[in-house]
Amino acid sequence: MITTTARPATDLGFLLHKHPERVQEFGQSFGTATVFYPEAGDERCTAALLLEVDPIALVRSRGKSSPDFSLSQYVNDRPYAASSLLAVALADVFRTARAGRCKARPELPGTPLPLELRLPALPCRGGPELAARLFEPLGWEVDAQALPLDEGFPEWGQSRYVRLTLRGTARLADALNHLYVLLPVLDDGKHYWIAPDEVDKLIRAGEGWLHGHPERGLISRRYLGRRWALARTALARLAELGDETEEELEPAVEEDAPAGESAADEAAAAEAESQGDAPSEEVSSEEKAPKKTPLNVTRREAVLAKLEELGAASVIDLGCGQGELVGALLARPRFARVGGMDVSSMALTIAARKLRLDRMPDSKRARLTLFQGALTYTDKRLSGYDAAVLMEVIEHVDPPRLAALENVVFGHARPHHVLVTTPNIEHNVRYEFLTGLRHPDHRFEWTRAEFAAWAARVAGEYGYQVAFEPVGEDDPEVGPPTQMGVFTRDQRS
């Protein structure tokens, strides 16, 4: 059920494209989905999606390839619990709402609403804790209560089901896409064959939030039915397009590996071994093929190498996100002072958890400063560092506000070196699946000539020299995927 209290609450009907005064049924290959409104008023409106599963139709829709034991095809929990079946029905019934379109009221889809989402019975392999780990980073207040096996026999313990309630303020399209992706992840068992096009579905539904989710590895792997090759494909695409998205098959459920201290392959292998889910010897040639280094890893390594070459002893990461570069800097004792600043308090919270600040040795903790701030306002905390890094940051700034950023970094903070990386839009043609810019929050992406012109102007205005280096494979026709400008302050200025 979806409830809102934004007045007039019946605008929910416009967003869902389902009239509050009607009961509507939608046939599915495995049963019938019904949409109705238990309450519909100006103060409060609730839309309910009821899925009635026909076990016979479910078996027929799966065909002879179903691996289930014959009796379990007919006797199972699918008619009684929210699962991948509900996710499929939700995607079909609310297709236009998920896309964020409303012809009658075009301003509504972009408006965040106070929402409450309720699922009375949800299979959750990982318990209430996993539900919180998946939904809380998306801004939801999570109330997940484990359901007993039998209320009459409490000594039997808890079942694998939870009663889940989510509360928060979000666009309805985002809320529906969160459910569409995460319901089968919690269930950890899709009812249909996982084809390669599921990667495209995951990327589309996860646009704007999956690339930065701390559990993106687990989400990708479970959504794709633990098919290693498809999970790698999805994570590689997220790493290419996301600003600082690491390639991980599945971080440990209990706790992430410390940022900057372990390679993705080691984390994936350890997790697979711990869950008894390592790939068997009969693995396809695609899965055995060596993995291409994700662009974000290549970019981070290029920045670290340049900082070492420049001899910087103190570095601040401006727009540090979830702390990947900060962690890598802390792992190298030569960087005696490390700073991290970001405008997002949520990103800093995740960074603190991934860096394990609560258990960090005092000697390392003394080298680190994390704080919230905006690059368009002067801040004395930015001063005093040998080098500052703007890694995939400037393209998130509205062009009219770039001048303020330039003044803050180059005019007031004035580190001896400034490293700036940004996407090379000319290289976008090499991404077959990409339409538009690489990230929905990018305000622009520059050609090599545009970046060079901007960097030369900034260097001239603030007394710096600038040199350019490619990051990633330097394509002879369209250049590298990332371009890096290395600014060095003129000793006379």
UniProtKB/TrEMBL annotation:
Signal peptide region: none
Domain of life assignment: Bacteria
Compositional bias of kind Low complexity: 259-278
One Pfam family here: Methyltransf_12
CDD domains referenced in this protein's UniProt entry, alphabetically: AdoMet_MTases
Chain ranges of the Methyltransferase type domain: 316-409
Domain Hen1 N-terminal: 2-239
Names of the cofactor(s): Mg(2+)
Keywords: Magnesium, Metal-binding, Methyltransferase, RNA-binding, RNA-mediated gene silencing, S-adenosyl-L-methionine, Transferase
Bias kind Acidic residues: ranges: 241-258
EC number from the UniProt entry: 2.1.1.386
InterPro entries found in the cross-reference section: 3'-RNA_MeTfrase_Hen1_bac, Hen1, Hen1_N, Hen1_N_sf, Methyltransf_12, SAM-dependent_MTases_sf
Catalytic activities: small RNA 3'-end nucleotide + S-adenosyl-L-methionine = small RNA 3'-end 2'-O-methylnucleotide + S-adenosyl-L-homocysteine + H(+)
rRNA-binding among keywords: no
Ranges where the record places region Disordered: 241-295, 471-493
Entry keyword Kinase: no
Sequence similarity: Belongs to the methyltransferase superfamily. HEN1 family.
Name under which the protein is recorded: Small RNA 2'-O-methyltransferase
Organism of this sequence: Nonomuraea helvata
Native organism taxonomy: Bacteria, Bacillati, Actinomycetota, Actinomycetes, Streptosporangiales
